[in-house]
Amino acid sequence: MKTLKTGIVKKHVGESIEQEGYEMRLIVERELEEVVALQGLVYSKLPNKQVLYMDSYDEMLTDMNLGAKIVGVFNQNQELIAYRYVGFPGYDDKNLGYDINLPHKELGKVVHLETTVVHPDYRGNGLQSLTLQQMIPVVKEMGYKHMLCTVSPQNYFSLFNIMKNGLKIKALKRKYGDENTGKEGLWRFILHRNLEPVSLLNPRELLKTSISDLEKQEKLIKEGFIGYWLFTESKELSYVRFDGALV
Length: 247
Ligand SMILES: CC(C)(COP(=O)(O)OP(=O)(O)OC[C@H]1O[C@@H](n2cnc3c(N)ncnc32)[C@H](O)[C@@H]1OP(=O)(O)O)[C@@H](O)C(=O)NCCC(=O)NCCS
Known about the structure:
It contains 5 helices and 11 strands; from the N terminus they run E-E-H-H-E-E-E-H-E-H-E-E-E-H-E-E. The protein is an alpha+beta fold. The protein folds into 2 domains: 3-141, Aminopeptidase (3-Layer(aba) Sandwich), CATH 3.40.630.30; 198-247, no CATH class. It has an 8-stranded mixed beta sheet with strand order 1-2-3-4-5-6-8-7. It has a 3-stranded antiparallel beta sheet with strand order 9-11-10. It is globular, with a radius of gyration of 18 Å. The chain starts with a strand and ends in a 5-residue tail after the last strand. Coenzyme A (COA) is lined by residues 42, 46, 51-52, 115-118, 123-128, 155, 157-158, 161.
């Protein structure tokens, strides 16, 4: 499999830090077990399980057969230390374009950033961002235009990395619930970036709100505001309303 990128990462070993080489490349089907194992390990160590909605082996395999791609980061011992899973929902109900009222003709150009995980020993190398940046030219080349994902309001490490890469908050709602069983969904921001250059609009109003004030943010989004930037220290989000609508 073609190498997408190589480099050096820091690994936390007890109190000290070691350096290791890494290779980024697309995962092949026989490596899917490793992906599921890494997801399980990361989930088991999460203090707040609400932030990660787990994908099963079968779901990922079906999705891969439909074209989904998983970028893996391997250390010098060829162990998987991080991955990013990218899916192409087409006109399926799960297309997040529906959640942000994307025009129907655009739905076929939607790419989903599904799960990303980084092994706890390798956090702080910017691997979530690096894998995302690596995938942008790949999906653009394939003709995709709208990058969308969900992020938990409680997952500010992930939210910061996603917003840093130009995705904006366009909706806030409960996702992954089940009407039949009455299972309540998990709160998720829905973020979007148009991968093609968009014309600049004039910001009309700008304000800040605490990331934990979901009610206020729901109201702002209904009024046409877009979540623009996350201030990590204060855990506040800036919301902007433009003259005209951004697609
Ligand atoms: C979200 C996640 C992928 C980010 O990993 P990453 O790319 O290594 O993060 P960054 O390199 O941007 O980290 C920046 C800083 O935040 C810290 N950090 C990142 N994730 C952290 C976490 N979950 N808990 C505590 N600190 C964390 C890093 O150690 C680093 O600190 P430093 O600057 O002092 O070195 C990783 O935290 C993770 O796997 N979380 C669990 C799964 C998840 O929530 N995935 C996203 C939803 S699908």
